[in-house]
Amino acid sequence: MSFTIIKKLPPMEEIIQAIPLSQKNLSQIQTDRQEIKNIIEGKDPRLILVIGPCSAWPKPAVLEYAKKLSQLNQKVKAQLKLIMRTYIQKPRTIKGWTGPVNQPDPFGSPDIEAGIRYARELMINVIELGLPIADEALFTHNAKGFMELLSWVAIGARSAEDQEHRIFASAIDTPVGLKNPTHGSLTVGVHSVVAAQHPHVAVFDGYEVQTDGNPHAHLVLRGSNKMPNYSITHLEEVQKHMAVHQVQHPAVIIDASHDNCIVNGKKNHNQQPHIVLEVLNSLKNRPDLKNLVKGFMIESFLKDGCQAIDKQTIDLQGLSITDPCLGWEKTEAFLLQLKDILNA
Description:
By secondary structure, the protein is an alpha/beta fold. It has a single domain (22-343), classed as Aldolase class I (TIM Barrel, Alpha-Beta Barrel), CATH 3.20.20. It is built from 10 helices and 12 strands. It has helices spanning 12-18, 23-41, 59-76, 112-128, 163-171, 186-197, 232-244, 272-282, 287-292, 328-343, and strands at residues 47-52, 80-85, 133-136, 152-155, 176-179, 201-204, 207-210, 217-221, 252-255, 262-263, 266-267, 293-299. It is globular and about 60 Å long.
């Protein structure tokens, strides 16, 4: 193999001990996971809403957002199960910043040890505010430092066809949403869910193991090829594939961002609330599909839009450096509107 050793990383157990999770927070995570499972199984009528910054940087702004979301959660928790995005690892189509877990300072050199410490501390700080958290499982070799903290896990569009990610999803006891691939095939998207729900023989930590399968694996529709895929027609196709494969607890979460919010060839983050309301309205006369759609995903931060990673002009007050996000004022107004609609 061709690489240069930079430094030896400390054992993950050492970092976990240095930044521990309290028993109180561990119990909270277990409760949150069970509530999300209950929603997927249809035992809890609330909608899941995975919401928060596209990427969890910088820490002060992310924590300020978390405090606001925690306060808003008290007003909407009877209708919505809020799960905050604390996305520390970012897939890139070609190249670019891969998130704070690899490079906690986007203007500095990559530093994985510092990134792991940054990410674990940030995640625990958010949990301490009373919020369940979500992340995308991109670098599965780093999972040991974070999996105990997560109440919901995403497998991204670029990873969902990868066998290692499917096996990883099959091995975890956390609800996991697998996105449809970027090329858009709903058949392949459902195949990813089926693979995650079934057991596999694999190698973990030097052991040959058999995974249990994850009965709470579900599909996330994120659009494809700059086109949306949340229409009734798309949902009917997903429902048909899931029935053929006898998917346990058939469930879909609709990502209102990414290709689902592209307008005239360009992503429009302000479309996200409209997409959620459009879907809910279209499901009014389709109880079968209404039972299939268990929630939504929204990219939201303190400030509206996004910015380039430019040291001279960087705004550190909650403006995304990756995908554009819905600003806080719009987010708060929408969630309160959504609460009233669901409560009607």
